[in-house]
Automatic annotation (TrEMBL):
It comes from Chryseobacterium gambrini. Keywords: DNA replication, DNA-directed DNA polymerase, Nucleotidyltransferase, Transferase. SUPFAM superfamilies: PHP domain-like. The gene is dnaE. Its EC number is 2.7.7.7. The keyword Nucleotidyltransferase applies. Gene3D superfamilies: 1.10.150.870, Metal-dependent hydrolases (3.20.20.140). Residues 1-68 form the Polymerase/histidinol phosphatase N-terminal domain. It catalyses: DNA(n) + a 2'-deoxyribonucleoside 5'-triphosphate = DNA(n+1) + diphosphate. This is DNA-directed DNA polymerase. It comes from the Bacteria. The lineage of its organism: Bacteria, Pseudomonadati, Bacteroidota, Flavobacteriia, Flavobacteriales. The keyword Nucleotidyltransferase applies.
Length: 1016
């Protein structure tokens, strides 16, 4: 009898999860239940599964509202009816088509109007819903005549009194108002919770027609839906046979290009793969991906195909990926096998500058009725919960900041804060809003509105109303269309090299990105700042510990840095075995046969599957459950336990001892965190190597491109320092030489106008555009005549030195600008300055102190350019030991002066510790470790230079300094404020540092890993 149930997918309205809604109905003996969330079908597929699991007949529809007002409730007669409703909501969301007060002509939909919105004429399948508190209206003639078209309308929105209060809080959040100011119209009735059907029938017993109409609707509906049937675009051509024919032709054509005509091993692998692809009906999936890549190539875009799709030789021959599966012995079954229950996916990266063009092509090529992004449900998070809930209780901003930033235990204990905490806890994990999946695109065979309504987020591409897990569940496979800055850097560097040197670098030539002597030297010493994926302090430290001097080791390093390997302790063990290959033995022959390349250690997802299969005798289906657990998908503890039981039983049958089996599974289990498949690591390694090749051979072009692509792990200052270390002559922005982005002229690097935070983007572009059209600016006066600018912005440009071509000191330019702009009206700019000659101002000589420019630079772009941070220190001391000599000081105490680059917060069993990255006076990088007990007395004091005292620990060729004491070194007072003692140290607080946080568990030490180095 419940025709109108809301779950919490009625965002900021309902309080019940799908599971809880169904559970409460089941406990009351309900046999038929209707889910009608507000303007959404997010929960209908989970609802069907939950209902059928407990023997309830699931019925679905949608409650249609406009601006919070209930227009009508729709209930599908069959599944196609949902598509009809989805279509009108999609037009409302995406095309701004108004929702009418009266429902349109539906074919397979029942419509229920509230008593407050009865249309002039009721169609055959249209009814009026009557609530319990509206029954007394039925004695009135205007309502009495409709009794034969009425149904029971007992809505469900919350579960109990506490949740009713939570509902009101959600409504206040949604309406951005105080709880006390909510009106009755903005909240649901206080009766919208489950009561027994018996009780409900008793209330309506005087109106058997109403009860009968309600039952007829419930009995008429069938939710027939095949979850297993693939809903993606079926064929790229016109049929399955033609798809296979085209895919085979393209694969063999690519085989010839990649391997030549007579490569029998490659040919056999292609035959095998094509057979599996065809049997699993994935030909169209490959061909659509190939089509997108063809378009990308035609536009001259660079892409990287990665993920498990790079395990396939067919994808390699089609040009989707650039990783040879034979060279790296990649395991196709990791990507696709006949036992796999879920569809595979390709991860394709483009530059962040090109991705929107690719997306437009996909939407246009495959039809906007058939293409959409996956949605994601953004949940209420800790900080946002306390801000949002605190706001509706009327707390001031200062208290909201405290609630959001301080741990719950130290919050004020007053009654309002206690209420905020109480309801805040209840809100955790509630969906708050829908957003766009970062990369998942769906391409359907039937119109996508058959399955979901679409929404239009600010980014401008429509999204479905469910997430990738539901999409996968119902048979819609996503195409991952990603973007990253690393590819933008590579692409821009190649273009810049062509422009500055006239050299065309074919960066996709794999001969460049595999084994280049000088690149290998850089890799081995971790000289990789700016390079994709391999520039972080942790990665540079790993490269040095491994003395990584080849592509294969780089592939392994790309995976062992991942949390799954590092946190299991396998990274530490890998480093030991790599450096001591004669100091261990494989504890079983299967590990030697399958994992020899990685010294018997599971580094890639495939390694776990191989050990499970060849050592444990598990089926590929069980291996797939392990794979999904390792990639963070479908982490079902129950299924994992079944796999574990199968593993132990199988090992027993194979004759393995219990000790051996326990150790093997311990290693599998410890690895079951996030990790890469080998092909993914290989793809990353190729891109890393491409970046490195450009850094090694074209360092200035490369660093300029890194700066323009807004860097990677570090702040811009670090990349400018790196450019300087590579021979670049850094110039502050100039109105005659700078572009919007940073530019290279010979060895001069002109910082872009975009780096001036106080300069509007439009104005920065206007300065460049005007110069391109009418030539360089001749003077400050000439600039003011041509650019519509105010005194505040002129000051920014003067202080940064953008008018240094005039050879006038900044003080003089500033006075001149004020005299020019005094009583100046922008609308008269052209008239006044063209018709009247510019006055020559005779100004007194204005003296500037040393380092005033440096402090201007810190204020305007965040760091000094005209000098080094060390030059601004009061002390002349520069340290007793330098980075170049650290390897000689193992276990010895050193005193160093260093500039802080970044620090990473890491939890340990004893409290927080930090790893710091610094540069010395020579500009060389080094790393430090700061333990909890030491940080109590010698903590970080923000960005700047520090005096460090610590002991050098050389761990496999990599020195780290364990800090005992440190002190931030005072800088000279700001010479610009010599007359104002209070302001002399204000700017010092603007010296930056990069702080990154992590919530991972502490890495285990060698003795805690206890990985056997001998046979068992």
């Amino acid at each position: 009898m419940f025709l109108n149930c809301h779950s919490y997918h009625s965002l900021r309205y309902g309080t019940l999860s799908i599971e809880e809604l169904v559970r409460q109905a089941y406990e009351l003996g309900v046999k038929q239940l209707v889910l009608t969330d507000i303007n959404t079908v997010t929960g209908i597929y989970d609802f069907k599964k939950e209902c059928e699991a407990v023997g309830i007949k699931p019925i679905v529809g949608m409650e249609v509202r406009k601006d919070g007002k209930l227009l009508y409730i729709t209930i599908s007669k069959e599944f196609s009816g949902i598509g009809e409703v989805n279509k009108i909501i999609t037009e409302y969301n995406c095309e701004n088509k108004e929702l009418s007060e009266v429902a349109p002509e539906f074919k397979n939909v029942f419509v229920i109007y509230p008593i407050s919105n009865i249309p002039p004429i009721l169609k055959e399948d249209e009814f009026i819903g009557v609530r319990i508190d509206e029954l007394n209206f039925l004695i009135r003639p205007e309502y009495k005549k409709y009794i034969s078209k009425m149904v029971v309308l007992h809505s469900i929105t919350f579960g109990n009194d506490e949740e009713y209060e939570l509902h009101k809080i959600l409504r206040a959040i949604d309406n951005n108002t105080l709880l006390s100011k909510l009106t009755k119209k903005e909240i649901c009735r206080q009766s919208e919770y489950f009561i027994s059907e018996k009780e409900l029938l008793k209330i309506f017993e005087r109106y058997p027609e109403i009860i009968s109409n309600t039952k007829n609707i419930l009995d008429a509906y069938r939710f027939d839906f095949d979850f297993k049937q693939v809903k993606n675009k079926k064929f790229y051509t016109k049929s399955k046979e033609e798809d296979l024919k085209l895919l085979s032709r393209l694969a063999y054509s690519g085989l010839e290009k990649r391997y030549g005509l007579n490569h029998e091993i490659a040919k056999k692998r292609i035959e095998k793969e094509l057979k599996v692809i065809d049997e699993l009906n994935f030909c169209s999936y490959f061909l659509i991906t190939w089509d997108i890549i063809c378009y990308s190539n035609s536009m001259g875009f660079m892409h990287v195909g990665r993920g498990s799709g790079a395990n396939s030789i067919v994808s390699y021959c089609l040009g989707i990926t650039d990783i040879c599966p034979l060279e790296l012995d990649l395991y196709f079954e990791r990507f696709l096998n006949l036992n796999r229950k879920t569809p595979p996916d390709f991860d394709i990266d483009w530059s962040w500058q090109n991705r929107d063009t690719i997306l437009e092509y996909i939407f246009d090529r495959y039809g906007r009725d058939h293409v959409a992004f996956c949605g994601t449900n953004v949940e209420f998070k800790y900080k946002s919960i306390f801000r949002e809930v605190g706001k509706v209780f009327g707390l001031p901003k200062e208290e909201l900041d405290d609630l959001a930033t301080k741990p719950m235990e130290i919050h004020d204990r007053n009654s309002v804060v206690q209420m905020v905490q109480k309801y805040g806890r209840l809100l955790e994990k509630y969906p708050n809003q829908r957003s766009m999946h970062s990369c998942g695109i769906l391409i359907s065979e039937e119109p996508i509105t058959n399955y979901t309504a679409l929404e239009m987020p600010p980014k401008g591409f429509p999204i479905v109303q469910f997430d990738m897990n539901v999409a996968e569940d119902i048979g819609l496979e996503k195409f991952d269309i990603l973007s990253q800055r690393g590819l933008g850097t590579i692409n821009d560097t190649v273009n810049l090299i062509k422009k500055t040197r006239g050299i065309k670098v074919d960066i996709r030539d794999t001969a460049l990105s595999k084994d280049e002597v000088k690149c290998n030297e850089y890799l081995a010493i971790g000289r990789t700042i700016g390079c994709f994926y391999i520039e972080s302090p942790a990665m540079r430290g790993l490269l040095r510990r491994l003395k990584c001097d080849n592509y294969r080791t780089l592939v392994a390093a790309s995976s062992i840095i991942r949390p799954g390997v590092a946190q299991s302790g396998m990274m530490r063990e890998y480093i030991f075995r790599h450096n001591n290959p004669d100091k261990f033995e494989y504890f079983h022959s299967v590990f030697e046969e399958n994992l020899k390349e990685t010294y018997g250690i599971m580094v890639y997802q495939e390694d776990v599957i191989k050990i499970a299969q060849y050592f444990g005798g598990l089926s590929l289906a069980d291996g797939d459950i392990l794979r999904r657990a390792m990639s963070g998908k479908g982490r079902s503890l129950k299924k994992l336990q079944q796999v574990k039981d199968n593993f132990f039983n199988s090992c027993k049958r194979k004759g393995h001892s219990e000790q051996l089996t326990t150790e093997a599974f311990r290693q599998i289990e410890s690895f079951a965190g996030y990790s890469f498949c080998k092909a993914h690591s290989a793809s990353y390694a190729v891109e890393s190597y491409q970046s490195l090749y450009l850094k090694v051979h074209y360092p200035l072009e490369f660093m300029v491109s890194v700066i323009n692509n807004q860097g990677g792990f570090y702040r811009t200052e670090v990349y400018i320092h790196e450019a300087k270390m590579s021979g670049g002559n850094i110039q502050v922005p100039c109105v005659n030489s700078s572009e919007f982005q940073t530019t290279l002229k010979g060895t001069d690097i002109y910082l872009g106008l975009m780096l001036l935070a106080g300069l509007e983007t439009k104005l920065a572009h206007d300065i460049v555009k005007e110069r391109e059209i009418n030539g360089e600016y001749k003077s400050l006066e000439n600039f003011i005549k041509r650019i519509n600018i105010g005194i505040e912005t002129i000051q920014i440009l003067i202080f940064i030195g953008a008018f240094r071509f005039t050879s006038k000191p900044k003080n003089e330019l500033l006075v001149e600008a004020r005299l020019l702009l005094i009583n100046f009206k922008p609308e008269n700019r052209g008239l006044m300055l063209i018709e009247e000659p510019v006055q020559e101002f005779k100004l007194p000589q204005l003296k500037r102190e040393n380092f005033e420019d440096a402090f201007d630079e810190i204020e305007l772009i965040g760091f000094p350019v005209s000098c080094s941070p060390f030059d601004l220190l009061k002390t002349k001391y520069r340290g007793s030991v330098f980075v170049k000599d650290l390897l000689k000081f193992h276990k010895r105490q050193v005193k160093m002066l260093a500039y802080l680059i970044s620090r990473k917060h890491v939890p340990t069993k004893k409290g927080t510790m930090y790893f710091g990255t610094w540069i010395d006076i020579n500009g060389d990088y080094f790393d430090t470790a700061h333990f909890p007990n030491n940080l109590k007395e010698y903590d970080f004091q923000g960005g700047g230079c520090y005096l460090l005292l610590g002991t050098v620990e050389v761990d496999f060729h990599f020195p780290t300094i364990t800090i005992h004491k440190m002190a931030k070194m005072p800088m000279i007072p700001d010479p610009r404020y010599s007359y104002d003692k209070e302001k002399q140290y204000d700017i010092h607080r603007q010296i930056k540092e990069d702080v990154s946080m992590t919530s991972r568990k502490p890495y285990p030490q060698t003795h805690e890993i206890a990985l056997p180095r001998h046979k068992i």
